[in-house]
Write a structure and sequence with these properties.
This protein is mainly beta and about 260 residues long. The chain contains two helices and 14 strands.
Length: about 260
């Protein structure tokens, strides 16, 4: 008896709830090929001919089927309003920073000729902090590490730089050019039989492109020549000492991020 009574009560609740759901406000949506959207109640529709739509204010429109891109019926009013609101929200703009402090972290890849004329590859990392006092100019200072060959010939540069940002009609990016110069340190590496090492002056010039993102992070890529003087003393397997005074001349490609 109790089970029958509960079952009957459940049926009565569902019967009372269904009309409420059926009465939930909804609208029909007609999306036209020109990009516009119309809402209301579809009174009639003849495929290939016309559609009659009664708008919320009572006006009845006749729309040619050739103008219609999509028809949606029974869309909840709240959902449609939310969708319309979201479509009107402006997208975040990608705007490149034009003044103030900046910090740049770059990975570098070096290519050039070795002493015997073969291709020599290397890699490095550079960190720069500077100040952009004009929309076209900035100055900074940095440090890094550069390896110019697989022989363990590594130097640690400390340098200053001047950046020139070229004018651009696009607010989200621009070309830039830079000139950097400084002095590099070098250290003995007994694990690689380098018994003595001395750094020297370095110079670097590059041209690149900076692209802004909506997160406020810049993506940078540049390319240019780099010159580095250094000397290394290496103990050979037969006990002799090899002295090398080197002027590295490399083409450097760098990629990185800026803030």
């Amino acid at each position: 008896m109790k089970e029958n009574a509960l079952f009957t009560l459940l049926l009565l609740l569902l019967a009372a709830w269904n009309p409420v759901l059926a009465q939930a406000p909804s609208t029909d949506v007609v999306k036209k090929k020109d990009g516009s959207t119309l809402t209301g109640k579809i009174l009639s529709y003849s495929p290939g001919k016309t559609l009659r739509l009664e708008q919320p204010e009572g006006q009845v429109l006749e729309i040619s089927d050739s103008e219609i891109a999509k028809i949606q019926q029974g869309i909840p009013v709240d959902a449609e309003r939310q969708k319309s609101f979201e479509s009107k929200q402006p997208l975040p703009k990608k705007v490149a920073k034009t003044r103030g402090l900046y910090a740049v972290s770059m990975l570098s890849f070096a290519a050039g000729s070795s002493d015997n004329g073969d291709l020599s590859l290397g890699a490095g990392f550079h960190q720069v902090v500077g100040y952009r006092f004009h929309k076209m100019f900035g100055i900074g200072a940095g440090f890094g590490v550069d390896n110019y060959s697989r022989r363990g010939e590594t130097v640690y540069p400390f340098f200053g730089e001047v950046r020139c940002f070229l004018p651009s009609k696009k607010p989200n990016g621009n070309l830039y050019a830079l000139v950097a110069g400084g002095y590099s340190l070098a250290f003995a590496r007994k694990t690689l039989d380098i018994t003595k090492a001395e750094g020297g002056p370095m110079g670097h010039a590059a041209i690149g492109y900076r692209a802004a993102t909506t997160e406020g992070i810049d993506i940078l890529i540049d390319i240019g020549p780099k010159f580095q003087r250094a000397s290394f003393s290496r103990k050979l397997y037969n006990g002799d000492l090899e002295e090398r005074n080197i002027d590295f001349q490399r083409i450097i490609v760098r990629v990185g991020i800026g803030f």
